[in-house]
Amino acid sequence: MRPINAVITGIIRETPTITTLRTDIELDAAPGQFVMVWVRGLDEIPMALSHPGSITVQRVGEATEALSRLDVGDSIGIRGPFGNGFEVKWGGEREGVEKGDEVGKGGEVRKGEEVGKGEKDGDGKGNKIMIIAGGVGGAPLLPLAQQAHSRGLDVTTLIGARTADELLFEEHFSKCGAVSIATDDGSKGHHGFITGAMDQFNLAGFDQFYVCGPELMMKSVLDILQAAGLEAMAQLSLHRYFKCGIGVCGACTIDPSGLRVCRDGPVLSGDLLIKSEFGKYHRDAAGKKIMF
Amino acid sequence: MSSTDLSIQLTGLELENPTILAAGILGTTGASLKRMAGEGAGAVVTKSIGSEPKEGHPNPTMLKLDCGFLNAMGLPNPSYRDFREELSIAREGGVPVIASVFGAHPDEFAEIILGLEGASAYELNVSCPHASGYGTVVGTDPVLVEVITRAAKQATDAPVWVKLTPNVTDIVEIGEAASRGGADAVVAINTVRGMAIDIHSGYPILGNLYGGLSGPAVRPVAVKCVYDLYKALDIPVIGVGGIGSWQDAVEMMMAGASAVQVGSAVYDNVNIFSEINSGLSAYLKANDHSLDDITGLAHRKVEQ
């Protein structure tokens, strides 16, 4: 597809470094799917959708800096949604949905065999989920929390940031369920990493874990889940250098599976990631390995 | 006799089937190449590798259009020094691994080939349409193509394939130059120069402004190039350009291809190789043909 023209209709300064851009388009996307955002004449970068028509950007480089400087009325090019997205699943009975079903992209219900990652078979589980959001990683997780909450799931969200004023979407997540905070400097909530905030919960009481944030933070979270034997119930959204964004070029493939993060991901299950390059290294634009 | 046997001998290499992963497609890492071998490819070609690390062009680097795909990756690669490890991982896939190499001059091609020792064969990329100083810049000059091919042949005992650009007046002239230089096979075609412009703003969409077209739109162009090369050359022609089904593969072989490469079609299905192979196998069986029977069949029909 050619880029869709998306006109900025609203700008929300979420934190000192994070901005949400609302646009006049609305995409039918599953939580966790991404779009390629084209800043014309400069670059095109993958971004999570924080809402069907919004992206939430942290200033980290040239393209995100340019995005953060846009005004209402300016436009960007959008291609997508791409990738797989998070799988929201439960085993409880809901109107119109049978036990063991799974709700995926665009809200459709998937049956049987596609339910792959740590599913529970209609035993009343799958109702309690933990969302773990580090920094701007909260962007793809907010629509997930909202969707899960609206379908009656019990949502607990852990939000981590460097400081209290960098906490993203605390208010929005609070509307979906319990929220627990961790800040590196202790200015709010647990003083330290988000993994410290996990200690106060009985992890075995949750049916699914959804994680997005800096890779080393996600690795620490996955280590804790693995120690509890829960890695197969974790869905983590990965970041890799994307070129084509549509699963053809191979720039974002991970070792040793060769899976394409842009197409087979960006959401991958914890048990798959444990046996991978995750948390160890990634590749740059030239395909050269960069250690974390 | 088994008419469904798809194995071929290609420039001295044993391939279990004639479908080959094309250069620049899912070939950045050894693990990815291995995965494609597992998806049924008879051989795999790596991403084009150069002498120095290269990040490639800025995004957007690839677009899906109604008629095909437009790309300008810009030859991103980590250099042959960093690619050696990927090459050895790729070889674990159990199928021939062909290293695609690009350079600006004969010595650079030779240096990279020596640096990537252990590949089953080498494919010289003298045809990338959108990287300044490389590719088409050298691939449109028959003298340069001949000299580069000769330098590559002197650098290795392994087979050397030369991938040709269709962005010339007469592709046969370039194919003949490769053949004179000692090429074991030619591969046709690389992408066709193309461009897309964003009508909302007037900006060219690709970061490099223009790029190369692949996919269904270029298949008739590729079929004609392969047809002409088969007629003129005594070395095998490997057909590539828009192949996405067994019917496409049969057509390309009838034009003269001894084997086919598949690229953009992985977009729809990474298992495309197995799919093409099973269709091809059923077709051969139903018609009591061998692969040799169909390679170049169009020429024999015309001569009758």
Protein model, in words:
- The complex is a heterodimer of chains A (292) and B (304).
- Chain A has helices at 62-68, 138-150, 170-174, 194-198, 215-227, 270-274, and strands at 4-13, 18-23, 34-39, 43-51, 54-58, 75-82, 88-89, 102-103, 109-110, 128-134, 154-161, 177-183, 190-191, 208-212, 234-237, 267-269, 281-283, 289-291.
- By secondary structure, chain A is of the alpha/beta class.
- In chain A, a hairpin with a 4-residue loop joins β1 and β2.
- Chain A is globular, with a radius of gyration of 18 Å.
- In chain B, α8 (246-255) packs across α9.
- The mean pLDDT of chain B is 96.
- In chain B, the strands form 3 sheets. Chain B has an 8-stranded parallel β-barrel with strand order 3-4-7-8-9-10-13-14, surrounded by 8 helices.
- The longest helix of chain B has 16 residues, at 272-287.
- The interface between A and B is large, with 40 and 46 residues.
